[in-house]
Amino acid sequence: MMFSAQPRFAGLAVLCLTAGLPSTSSATEGYFALGYGTAQRGLAGTGVAFSQDAMSGAINPASVASVGHELNFGLELFAPSREFSTGATAMLPANTTVKSGHDLFAIPNFAYNHPLANGAVLNLAVYGNGGMNTSYPNIANANCGPFTGIFCDGKAGVDLTQLFVSTTYAKKTGAFSWGIAPTLAVQSFAARGISSFAAYSSDPAHMTGGKHELSWGLGLRAGIQYDLSPQVTLGLTGQTKFNMSKFDNYAGLFENAGEFDIPAAVALGVALHASPTVTLLADYQKIFYSDVPAVGNTSTTLGLLPLGSAGGPGFGWRDVEVIRIGAEWQHSPSMTWRAGYAHASNPVRSEDAMFNVFAPGVVEDHFSLGGTKRLNERDRLDFSISYVMANTVSGYERTPASTAASTITLKMHQVSAAIGWSRKF
To answer: Is 92 inside any structural domain?
Structure first.
C-alpha cells in the first residue's frame, strides 16, 4: 500500500541523494539548513504552522496531513564564501587573508505524500541538513619553517555533510493535525591538513588524512498544528538528539573517540491568513548545539585535555536561536510570490575562533524571495533566491607560542538559488 502509485520515484530519489552525499554542503543557522524545500526557502524557512507541499514535513511533520497526493523534486545551488584574516600569529599565516575554495554546491531534495484509506497520509522525504565545508589552499606560511599550509600541513579543510531519510505518518482531525516521523540520518566527514595538532591528540593516527567516513543514526521528529480559527494556525515541532555511530577514522579529533551526534531542536510558529490571498508567518527555533560535546565543548582546553578524549576540546558552539518571518501572496490563480527574513544568533565565541577557521558558521541575517508558477492543473514550478549577509567574529590564536597580538577574524556570507517541480495526483 505504501507509495503504491509512484514507487520508482522514491527509490530513484534515495539512490541519487545518497550517492551525492559526500559533495553536499550547506551552512546557515550554525550548520542547519535555512529551509529544505524550494518553497520553504522562499519564506526564509518559515512554515511550522503552514502546509505548503510534500516537503513541508521536513519543517513540521504535521504539515503534510492536509497536503494530499503530491510529489516534489528540488535542487538548490549554494555558494558560501568563507575566509579568515590574521594578525601577528604564531602558527597560522601572519597578517594575511585566506579564502576557502570549493564555493559552489548542488543540494537536491525529494518528497512524496501518499493519502491512506483511513484519512491519514504517509510521507517520504529525503533532504540535506547542511554541513560544514572548508578547503584552504597550500599557501606559504613563514611560521612553518620548511612546511606550507595554514596549519603547516599542506591543503587543509573539513567536509561534514548530513542527509535525512524521513518517513512521516500524519493525520488531520477537525482543527487538529499531528505527525510523527522516524528518521534515518547519514553523515559523512573528512579532515585534512591538521597533523600539526597530533601532539594534542589522544589518538594521533586517527585525526586527519582526508578520507571520507560515514556515520549512521536514528532520531524521531514530531509535530502538531491547530487551527485556532479560519484565520490563525499554531504549530509546534521538535526533533530528538540523533545518537550517531562514531567516526572511527577521526577518533583522535572528535570528543569521546570520534563521537559526533546531531543536536535536538524545537520550533513553534504561527500562520495568519490575513486575506484570501495573503498569509503572514512567524517562527521561533532553538538548536541545542551545546548538548553535542564535539560541537559544544570549548576549544580553550586544548593542551589541557587531548583531542578525542572524553570531555576533550570541541568547536565551542553555543545554542542557536532563530527568529523567522515570511509572507506569501497569491497574485493570481497561476502565480504566487514569497518573501522572508531570518535572524539566527551566532554560535561561535571569540575565544574559539582558531578552531572555527574550519567551521566559520557565523552568519546571522538571511533574506529570501521566491514564488510558484502553476503550469497546469497538476504541475507547478517553484523558485527562490537567498542572500545571507556577511558577518565576522574575531578572537585569538591559541597555541603555546601565540601572543595577545595573534588575532583571527572569521568572515562568511552566502548566496543560493533553488528550483523545484511539484505534481498533484
So the answer is: yes
CA 151 – CA 90 distance, rounded (Å) = 10
Integer-rounded Cα Rg, in Å, for the chain is 22
**CB-based contacts of 63, cutoff 8 Å, min separation 6:** 47, 48, 50, 51, 52, 56, 57, 170, 177, 179, 223, 225, 235
Residues of the chain scoring pLDDT < 50: 1-27
C-alpha cell at 258: 570520534
Could you tell me the CATH number of the domain that includes residue 229?
A: 2.40.160.60
The number of distinct structural domains making up the chain is: 1
Condensed to tens digits (0 to 9), the pLDDT of residues 86-132 reads 998 888 999 999 999 988 888 899 999 999 999 999 999 999 876 67
Query: Does residue 210 belong to any structural domain of this protein?
Result: yes
CA distance between the termini of the chain: 16
Q: With contact defined as beta carbons under 8 Å apart, do 31 and 359 qualify?
A: yes
Is residue 221 in a domain? Answer: yes
pTM over 0.90: yes
Q: Which residues of 67-90 are buried (b: 16+ CB within 10 A; e: fewer)?
A: beebbbbbebebebebbbbbbebe
Is 2 inside any structural domain? no
Residue 286's domain comprises 7-424
